[in-house]
Design goal:
Elements (H helix, E strand, L loop, with lengths): L1 E3 L2 H7 L5 E5 L2 E5 L4 E5 L8 E4 L4 E7 L7 E8 L1 H41 L7 H18 L3 H7 L1 H32 L1 H6 L7 H7 L5 E6 L5 H14 L8 E5 L2 H12 L7 E4 H13 L7 H4 L1 H16 L2 H11 L20 H15 L5 H9 L6 E2 L5 E2 L5 H29 L5 H14 L1 H4 L5 E4 L7 H11 L8 E6 L14 H4 L1 H4 L4 E5 L1 E2 L4 H11 L11 E2 L8 E5 L3 H12 L4 E7 L9 H7 L3 E7 L8 E6 L15 H6 L9 H11 L2 E9 L6 H8 L5 E2 L3 H6 L1
Parallel strand pairs: 8-14, 8-15, 9-10, 9-13, 13-14, 16-17, 18-22, 18-23, 19-20, 19-21, 21-22
Antiparallel strand pairs: 1-2, 2-3, 3-4, 5-6, 6-7, 11-12
Helix pairs in contact: 2-3, 3-5, 4-5, 7-8, 10-17, 13-16, 14-16, 15-16, 17-19, 22-26
């Protein structure tokens, strides 16, 4: 069935449609240049006709799924035939629609079921929940070739209920979850007031209610992250969203794990699974194999490590080919504990050499790459040759990275035979080291996820900023896989306090959280209860100099106008302590003396202990200060090449730990931030004025609210 314009009419029509025909359940429009086909499923079933001076025209409205509604018009049609033709088209459409509606009746119950899945959903609607629903909806529509146009006519209300989620699911999910969170916040308001020793603040309550598939809570120093972890665990159980045994809480250290257990026991939540990563990996391996993994002596016993390494060196360095390779390396670079002036085999027992080799071995064991892949990764650090402005060539030899790359490749060739023999030793003895525990458990979970990881609804991780690639792979194996509903990952950490790069942690796994989990959610705790606003103003500005750190507000609960950070010459520490002790009167106060490492412990520390009994003085390294707090702190030896420390990570270690960040000394800046934020009331930053480090100069020269007891002349002299 077809209706066309006459030749004369076609000439007048030019490029517009001049013909329309019915092809089964489709309309076909023709013009001089193109032919367009419109299935009945996107046509509204109406023909709009109008009469011109000589001819008629016909217009239809179509609604493609991927584009806005549009009109198609055919011009120059014979008017006497047009009205009857239009009636025939709409009649054919009605016949088609009746058949579709019969088909719709057969599938309507499935559409009601789809509607009810979302309507009856309890709790937070996760991204994976919506994705699974969409997959079910797609399967229904594909199995029954159900057209939206038919659906909208047959049952408009059901159409709106289902198709609204198909077309605008993300926006509707966000709005629905916001309503749910608002209701929960109100419903649990009284409980939030009493859940911890102090009422939870607004950001803490919002954090408790986070429940998407991948959640990151940024918890700054002193912001109450442990309170949130405890409150969230109790909320999930009391709200009957899960049971204690279906919650997994992971910590990096045994001490942190035990502290969480103790706090949960106080609330009768002894069945919550609280574990370190290594302990959890052990449990997975035991559950999968029926027996606990055997730890290698080389991983746990220092005497065994020393004996095995000595024998390995003696055997390998006695080989002329191997010795030649080592001598070639020593001609260009140093190796700790090894001298080219003595026969190498005689130095096989050197403790410093052992320590250096174990360090390289540990870093390589953290990798899951082959030797070739590691080589390629190192070579990728090599800069390209570029042209200078004066037309001379800037060669690779001019770059500071070049020496690191060359040294790294040489060290890799020296150490890889050790890696190979070490792994062979573990395999032959059927033992694992600590890195192997994580990797083996990840492999098992990746294969048997549906059974071994199905025990958990919620996985919580403390100190997430310390995560390493291998531990993240373990988490993804726990929270991934094909299940009705995968566990929710709730990661709590602070990228501003990521200070364990030397141990394999990777801060980019926190800062790039949304790049890895695009549908994830990030929130932050916005109030610190530890330090006052003046100390916070210094610390927060200082850490955010690095543009790669995640930006967040961290407001101090205690406001004050008096400056709380003082730049102090080292020689005046005793005088400051004397004044502090006098100001305390009969009250006691805690004081942390914080140094970059143990070598920075002040020589007068013992004398200070006895001279100021009202002050509880304690020395810790900057790394050990993480998690501690005191009334007052002194950061000592903030001198050039001390704090920030000069980087000695060259060669293989430097290449494996290499990370591009926005500023120089990025890791040391985070470490200094940790040291700054241990004090409740006052922090003194102490240095030798003529040797003041770049951090002291930045605090002095920058727009920081600090007091300075060092003269401008002294600081300028350096």
């Amino acid at each position: 069935m077809k209706l066309s314009a006459s030749r004369l009419a076609q000439w007048f029509v030019q490029g517009d449609h001049y013909s329309i025909r019915l092809d089964e359940s489709r309309l076909v429009f023709e013009s001089k240049h193109i032919t367009e086909t419109v299935p009945f499923s996107i046509w509204d079933g109406q023909c709009r006709i109008s009469r011109g001076l000589w001819w008629g025209r016909l217009t239809v409205i179509v609604s493609p799924a991927d584009r806005p509604a549009q009109t198609l018009t055919v011009y120059g049609l014979p008017w006497r035939e047009l009205q009857a033709f239009a009636e025939q088209l709409t009649g054919e459409y009605q016949v088609w629609l009746a058949g579709q509606q019969k088909r719709f009746m057969l599938v309507e119950h499935e559409l009601f079921a789809l509607r009810d899945i979302l309507a009856d959903h309890q709790g937070y609607l996760r991204d994976a929940d919506l994705k699974a629903w969409r997959e079910k909806a797609d399967a229904v529509f594909e199995a029954h070739t159900l057209h939206p146009q038919v659906f909208s006519v047959a049952n408009p209300a059901l159409y709106q209920a289902v198709y609204g989620w198909i077309q605008n699911g993300d926006a509707k999910r966000m709005a629905r979850n916001q309503r749910w969170q608002d209701n929960e916040r109100e419903r649990w308001s009284a409980w939030f007031d009493e859940a911890e020793s102090s009422p939870l603040n607004a950001s803490q309550r919002d954090a408790v209610l986070m429940d998407d598939n991948h959640n990151l809570l940024l918890a700054g120093a002193g912001s109450g992250k442990t309170s949130v972890l405890m409150a969230r665990t109790r909320y999930l159980v009391m709200g009957e969203q899960t049971t204690p045994e279906r919650i997994l809480m992971l910590a990096f250290g045994k001490k942190a794990s035990e502290e969480m257990k103790t706090r949960l026991q106080a609330h009768q939540l002894t069945k919550v699974n609280v574990s370190t990563f290594h302990s959890f990996a052990t449990t997975i391996i035991k559950e999968a194999t029926g027996q606990a993994p055997v730890m290698a002596d080389l991983a746990t016993d220092e005497e065994s490590k020393m004996s095995w390494m000595t024998l390995w060196l003696a055997k390998n360095l006695a080989n002329p080919t191997v010795e030649k390779r080592w001598q070639k390396h020593l001609a260009q670079w140093k190796v700790s504990g090894l001298s080219a002036d003595r026969p190498l085999v005689e130095q096989a027992h050197e403790p410093k050499l052992h320590k250096w080799l174990w360090r390289q071995l540990d870093l390589l064991q953290q990798q899951t790459l082959s030797q070739t892949a590691i080589k390629q990764r190192i070579q990728a650090l090599q800069p390209n040759t570029t042209e200078r402005e004066d037309d001379t060539t800037l060669t690779e030899l001019d770059s500071p990275n070049t020496n690191m790359v060359a040294k790294a490749l040489s060290e890799l060739s020296l150490v890889w035979p050790l890696v190979r023999d070490y792994r062979q030793h573990l395999t032959q003895n059927k033992t694992l080291d600590f890195n192997g525990l994580i990797i083996e458990a990840t492999k098992i979970l990746s294969k048997k996820n549906a059974t071994l990881a199905s025990h958990y609804d919620h996985v919580m991780v403390d100190e997430y900023q310390d995560i390493s690639p291998s531990r993240l792979a373990l988490l993804e194996a726990v929270c991934g896989g094909k299940r009705d509903r995968s566990p929710s990952l709730f990661a709590v950490g602070d990228d501003w306090q990521a200070i364990y790069r030397f141990a394999g942690s990777d801060v980019s796994l926190t800062t790039d959280f949304l790049a890895r989990f695009p549908k994830g959610e990030i929130r932050y705790l916005d109030t610190t209860y530890r330090f006052n606003s003046m100390l916070g103003d210094v610390a927060n500005r200082f850490i955010q100099v690095n543009p790669t750190q995640l930006s967040k507000p961290l407001n101090s609960h205690r406001l004050q106008k008096k400056k709380a950070v003082t730049l102090l010459p080292t020689e005046r520490i005793a005088a400051a302590l004397d004044k502090l002790a006098s100001s305390q009167g009969e009250k006691s106060a805690s004081v942390l003396i914080i140094g970059r490492n143990n070598a920075n412990k002040p020589a007068d520390l013992g004398q200070w202990y006895s001279s100021y009994p009202s002050l509880d003085i304690r020395y810790v390294t900057a790394h050990a200060s993480k998690g501690l707090e005191a009334d007052y702190t002194f950061i000592v030896d903030v001198n050039e090449n001390v704090f920030p420390a000069r980087s000695y990570a060259e060669g293989l270690e430097g290449a494996l730990l290499h990370m591009e960040e926005g500023v120089e000394h990025a890791e040391e800046r985070r470490l200094f931030y940790v040291a700054l934020t241990r004090a409740k009331h006052q922090c003194w930053v102490c240095c030798e004025p003529e040797m003041a480090s770049v951090f002291v100069k930045e605090l002095w020269q920058g727009d920081y609210p600090v007091s300075c007891s060092i003269t401008k002349k002294q600081l300028m002299a350096n």
